[in-house]
Amino acid sequence: MTHKSFLVRWFYNLPIRRKQLTGLFASEIISTIGLVGVGAILIVTGGQSILFHQAKSELIVSQMSYDIKINQMGFGFRGQSDNIAIINALKESKGSRNLNPSLQKQVKQILQNEITAREIEDAVLVGKDLRVIVNGKTDKSGEIYNPNNLVSKVLESNTQIKTTEIINEKELYQRDLPLPSEVKGEDILIRYTVTPVQDPKTGEVLGALLSGDVINHQSQIVKQILNATGGGYSAIYLHQSTGKFSLVTAALERRQHRENRDKNLNQRNEKYYNKYRFNVPLENNFLLKLAVEKPGQVATTRLKVGNNTYTIAAQSINNFAKQPVAVLVRGTPERDLNLLLRDNLFVQGVVAIIALAIDIGLAILLGRAIVYPIKCLQKAAQDFSTGDLQARAEVIAQDEIGELAHSFNLMVEQIARRDRTILQQMQQLQGTLEQLQNTQNQLIQTEKMSGLGQMVAGIAHEINNPVNFIYGNLDYAKEYTQNLIELLQIYQIKYPEPDSTIKAKVEAIDVDFLQKDLPKLLNSMEVGSERIKEIVNSLRNFSRVDEAEFKAVNIHEGIDNTLIILANRLKENIDRPEIDVIKEYGNIPLVECYAGQINQVFMNLISNAIDALNEHTINVHSPKIWIYTERLKSNWIVIKIKDNGQGIDREVSSKLFEPFFTTKPVGKGTGLGLSISYQIVVEKHHGSISCNSNLGEGTEFVVKIPIQQTIEL
User: Fold this and answer.
1) Residue ranges of the HAMP domain (predicted)?
2) pTM across the whole model
């Protein structure tokens, strides 16, 4: 009681300013301790919550990474199910066990290619009787192959199956699959895809394509997951029918101490930095059991793996029968977050102390008169920092704080103006960059065409010389041959009864047949030589892509030369009959243009028409291409190139002339043909090019160019 009275009297005897300071100091200390304590609790609990959510999110990413391979397998073998060689092999196997060796070799090569491309262990073609027809690895033709009845289910449902299954090791060894050397006396976890193969005409299921990817001791799987999730721990456990769990594969990212990491910052090689430890198990199977008991749900806990504690998330992997056959495990390291939490708490404490000192100083030096203007300025600054460019500070007085608020408003105005300027400059730079990229690609394409033109012109020249020699001597050969035949006929008249030797030779060489057939043979040679000269002349005319001269040319000649070059593509093939080209040429004069570039436009448009007819052969029984020319008004001509293919959707046709836009499969189109054609017609010849098309009605390209250029190109 005496001690308490002393403190009260001491406080009462203090000056008023010190009483205010003491009370403020005490309240600030209490507030700071409370805030730091509560903040520490919130940070710790929030950090743990974040870790659990992060582990669940990373488990989803792990599942996606795990599914990528099986989806790739499914996609690849779905495409191979339409392969005509595989379909023919299944058809042929229905009537006979002995498959044509050539066809068997072709199908085996397809399966081996898939094994190499997908990096899998097995690829098998199985018939409706569940017997192997062709195997990508060792020859097991005729053996029953129906792992876990997957093939039977696919044949019944006519639906592709993608699943993870457990297969007995003995069964796989019987198939001579290349298993990892670590696999000894254990069940195997395999990702399977089983794809039905149908008869394209009848829709009958002929058999199935089966692919298998062994997971056991495949560290690449978990390494890919760690790369996708940024490190940590990843594992796959096999869930046996007895309820036991066995580790299939696992990877743990090594964590160096901070000082070692800084020391080896520029020495990230295997000698100084081993990135992963493999096959590190969990310390117990509690989480695995929980994941299997609740299939489809994510189980989480905190476990120690190696020397560090991780937040672990696990989820079961079910087979086709919806039974849990494996558990996917993802571990998020807590060490970095713990360091971050420690640093945050330290910074928070330091900031709190600094804030306490600043608050006391401001309370003593400035008082309440300064607080409100500063709060107003602070609010404006916070609003501006969050993106409100219209935020301004209220100028309450003309003192230093007022001047500060005014300066802040000027700064904000300048920043906002500068931000708008930077945005405009970025947009201009983006447009310039896109234009430069388009120009670069078009220059590359033009250079390729120029080089091709020079090569074609050179080849045409080299072919033309010997052809002219042959063609020029054919008339003399015909004349000499006719003279010899006439001389032979005179001999026959003057000496009708030759000796036995001459008579035997006459009968052996059939002189009468030679006299009739030799002129025909020379005429055929003359026709062939004329055809070669015609093709060579067309190549020389078309190859003028590098001509810089602007001159009047015959448009019809350019079209005809293009058709001669494309004659082989117009011929009948196994997918469609011959393409009929209907030319409706109008009476048009010579046109001033770059001949090689205009020929390139014709080549692009006619080639696209042929491609359209090749891609939709089912709906086109009589493929046709119409080429129409006409003079418009006094100084314009129009060229129309139309096909009776499938046509183009309006939304797609609006993008046809954009660089790199193509509707062709990957590897069959660059998306530059029509873009370059647009540049040639519109920019270099001041004309126009458009596309008229509807689905099911074919496609028509309309090119308009002036006969004479009225402005300088």
Assistant:
1) 368-420
2) 0.46
